[in-house]
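Task 17 of the worksheet. Students: predict the tertiary structure of the chain below and write it out as structure tokens. Keep your answer in the requested format; marks are given for formatting as well as content.
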Amino acid sequence: MKLDRRKFLKGVGATSVFTSLSGLAPGVASAKQPGSHNSLLDKRNGEVKYHTCARNCADRCLLKFRVQNGRMTYVSGAEEQEKTGTSPCVKGHTYVQYTYAADRILHPMKRVGKKGEGKWKRITWDEAYAEISSRLKQVIAEHGPEAVLPYSYSGHEGMIGKYGGPCRFFHKLGATQLDRLVCVFAAYEGLKSVTGTWRGPDPEDTPLTDCYVAWGQNETATNVHGIKYINRARDNGAKLLVVNPVRTPIASQADIWLQPRPSTDTHLAAGIMKYLVEKDLVDHDFIKQNTLGYDELVERLAEISYDEVEQVTGVPREKMFEFARVYGQSDKSVLRLGYGMQRNYNGARMSRAIAMLHAIAGNFGQVGNGFIYDNVQADDGMNYAKGTASHLRTNADTVQHVNMTEIAKAIHPTNPTAYGKPIKPIHALINYNGNFVAVAPDSNACRRGAMREDLFLVVHDFIMTDTAELADIIVPAATQFESDDYCPDYNCYYQQICEKVIEPVGESKDNWTFFKELAHHMGFDDPEFQVDHEGILRDFLDTDDYAYEGITYEKIAKEKFVKVNVPKPFFGDGKYFTESGKIELYSDYMKKAGFDPVIDLGLPEDEMIPEERDLPFRLLSPAIPQRANSSFYNVKYIRNFPAYFAKINPVDAEKYGIKNNDRIRLHNHRGEAHFVAMVTSQVVPGTVMAPKNNWRRMDPQGLDSCTNNLTTDKLTDMGGCSAYHSTRVGLSKA
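Model answer:
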């Protein structure tokens, strides 16, 4: 049986350091020019290795590394791939320094002091394997295999590094399954209720559109290479419309920017739809041929007033009308929905409303229009069942599940729960590709759980993270550049190669080597633990999915990147993936979920406990360009970009007596976090913004605080997704 990515995610759970990045900067002088710096030019020579950036970013850049005498010396973009071009982003430029970081963990270590005390003893790999396997066997004998929990997410996005290697081990073990639903799944459900899918058209066709709408998306942080396609569209005369509660760089460049209050997007979309209907700017032919429930939508819109929309969103109606006119009068529009905006209690409902707006404007089914959210065609087409050896799990029908967003609840010292119900206690946790003490919401509770003396915590990482400092055993991880892998795109339609760039540094081991060798120490002798990296990749490619027709291991190895097969235009045949085969403006799917089947106007505050709902500020914690989730904190250059600031509107700053660079304290019933104030109109009154996933141990004020000390671990309305942005806080001077 072939398993697609979405179904799989629901069920799976001493080195010298480069101290300068001058050799990585573009535009270094030619050797023929006077004053050229030969030592910098030398870094660009050497053997070329192609490797895809496996961070959790929509760009998914294909990079070219230069290697001299077994050492990585230089990184550039693979200019052969137009999507990437010649240069990585600011983070990608640091990969040499990232790989040879001064604080890299190079050998296994065992805790010898109290948890969090920072006292370690160097041990051998044999000793580490003996300790880990012995403790796991003991836990299983006393409590059963579900007492073991893996935790991981996007520290490594390769098919082997994220899935194929580790999952084979945990399937065989019978461990509790981790539901990795933190990122995109609320919008999956909302979009599924409209078109039946979250997939969309090729972003490389964006230059052909008349209107580009960035809704809740910050391309400068997580899709910087996509901006060139937006700019090409604008060069061709397209309009740029932006909806975002934060004034992002692209919002500053927009023809029209709407700045609603956080998570009021359903109201805003409804207001725009109401205007389109009243001014006859909808596409009647498209609606008649492709949709169901338009009459019900018109009736629902009649119940919603512009006064209500303006009051809830804070967007002046004339500004909204201007947006609607430009949008409605465009022949073809591309709408790019961001990932962050759907991380709210009403995430699915907001996503649904925005997709409905795009539908009544007739913006599906042509090259140059469509709705882009999560283009996982290159990902879903692979054979997850075989690649992860899911058949090794013998308790698939009975095993307990833990949502990774609720990790604090699952490892609670006295009352472990998941999805609101009690679970069997977790007594062993293996953390890889992640840093849950910093990344998961309610960080204080995460730390309390990790500090349990009866929780055996193993961390496989290459630097000392907030989670690693609480471990019983730390085993050194190789970076992604030290093994072979594939990495599929999730914006454009590419499968890309990850060639091994260098040998593992120190005693580090890549994910598959670690879990394969640990499996052998556990006594697992299945054939699935005898294969090499190529064998796993071939298993993933053993698929009959149309997207991979004609695509082989040899083809990818030779060409470095291949575009999977996706019909164009997307939805060009007028067939949708809903039960009716139509775009559903009235949805029984939503009705069965307990929501209004057309437009549900519920807001996150409706679901908050009074002690949080009554706090004065909504907290936004988005990505920033200098970091990818919890990654890059080991790079000195990147650390110099502040991650412990909080942006506050001038109106609020005056009210609270806050000035630029003042130390401030944000707080709620989960805890407190300390930041430096930045007074700016980038955020609306009543909102503060602090970067996501900053580390506790990196707090420059030394107060062990981070943004996720404050964030909620309550799940979204549908899809089991995280709802970080449905958090309210109080504010005071520190």
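Marker's comment: The CA atoms of residues 190 and 686 lie 27 Å apart. The first helix runs from residue 5 to 11.
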